[in-house]
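lol ok so funny story. i was supposed to be doing the assay writeup but got distracted and ended up predicting the structure for this chain instead. priorities right. anyway since i did it might as well share w the group, maybe its usefull for someone
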Amino acid sequence: MKINSQALSESINKELRPIYVLFAEESFQLSELSDEIINKAKNHDYNEKLSYVITKDSDWSFLDTDNENLDLFGSKKIIEVKLLGAGPGNKGSKALKAYSSNPDPMKLLIVLAEGLDKKSQSSAWSKALDDSGIMVIENPISQKSMPSWIKRKAENHNLSINEDAALLLSEKSEGNLLAAIHEITKLSLLYSGKAVGIKEMEKSITNSSKYGIFDLSNAFVKGERERIYTILESLKAEGTQPALILWAISKEIHNLYKVKEENSTKNIWGPKFYLDALSSRVKQTSKAKIKFSIQEIAEIDSSIKGLSSKNPWQSIRDLAINF
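and the output, tada:
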């Protein structure tokens, strides 16, 4: 059943379905939707999450219950499947259709489809998932819709941002959802339950910390380890949430993966200096390293959600510095 993202909360409160397939352009949008489902699933005793980043060489046997050992404790598991810029392929399509016809009652399958074209939303595998579960299609955030998006996110943080202030933040963040959320989080600490107008927004942006999410992303792509460490410590000290930092690093690693796969930056948005930095870093990084790091991101994400004993901050720092 297709629903929009605004209806997801009501849907999962009524009933947790066995399958969710989520389409969006940005990993940040997908993470928000996925987090909402996972938080609800934890209330239904799903306390373990396994993540699989799909490539052309992926083995789909993790969906084949016949190949699994019998779980004596009957633990419920969340299976997260990440599709980055491409569909599951023939083998994956068959596996998803087969699983959809007979979902495992002890599993919750969440398929995250990032940057896939519209044809994928009506493909056989996505229709099969939709028939057995829920499909959510999150529209891209355009320059025109960004202020409204900012105001909605502010409300979720017990904050009221007026139109002029939202327009200013939209202009300053230049379409970067992570940067906008970072500013909203900071504002919520300063003006919780209050109205934020143009004066408050100007003051907040002017008094922004020495380092921001943009700085971390640029340092990471350039491989500047000492600068990465300094920025991470600064962001941690000012109370930046680890999930926000992980999303920023995740976006850059996913972009590196796309460039590696396509041998081109043509499908990556950004200024020339950023695209050049991506191209340079890709040449220095093996595909195996990138794939391993994407899996690491999934494990750190689990620790942030309380599904792993790892220390989120230490793991993020290790990932960013040692990449």
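The chain has three domains: 2-137, 141-208, 211-323. The CA atoms of residues 12 and 37 lie 7 Å apart.
back to the writeup now i swear
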